[in-house]
Amino acid sequence: MQSTSVCLGVRLPDDVWQVIVDYLLKYRNIVAPDGLREWTENNLDITLFDGGAFLSHQNEFDLFVVPEKRGKWRIRSVFNGFLNDMLEKHQKIVVKIYPDNAPSLRLAKGFGFTEVGRENGMIRLEKQHG
To answer: What is the 3-state secondary structure (H, E, C) of the chain?
Structure first.
């Protein structure tokens, strides 16, 4: 499985963008406004992989996977590579996940993230370097 690290200004695949739009509606009750895709592509670090993308800003990131790849892609090498890169840049990395998003919570905890608190209705999990 090939992952491609990219930075600001890279276009998200349409199917991945749709996952983000669906997430915003489901978890935040937000209809993605015009211009959000362009803002995202120009202001967040994007790491694409086959079937999804990591979106990050500083030491915090989100993971979006297209439905047909969920549970089917080889996550361990892709996710470990991304986490290692993030931990090289930052001593601590952060994810925030809604409590009813059980698959994402399971994934984060399975990769060594620890719950450290709750903020704005989300669980904050952290992973330290080393």
So the answer is: CCEEECCCCCCCCHHHHHHHHHHHHHHHCCCCCCCHHHHHHHHCEEEEECCEEEEEECCEEEEEECHHHCCCCCHHHHHHHHHHHHHHHCCEEEEEECCCCHHHHHHHHHCCCEEEEEECCEEEEEEECC
**Which pLDDT tens digit goes with each residue over 27-62?**
889 999 999 999 999 999 999 998 899 999 999 999
- The count of structural domains within the chain is 1
CATH number at residue 113: 3.40.630.30
Sign of the dihedral defined by the CA atoms of residues 102, 107, 110, 112, in that order: negative
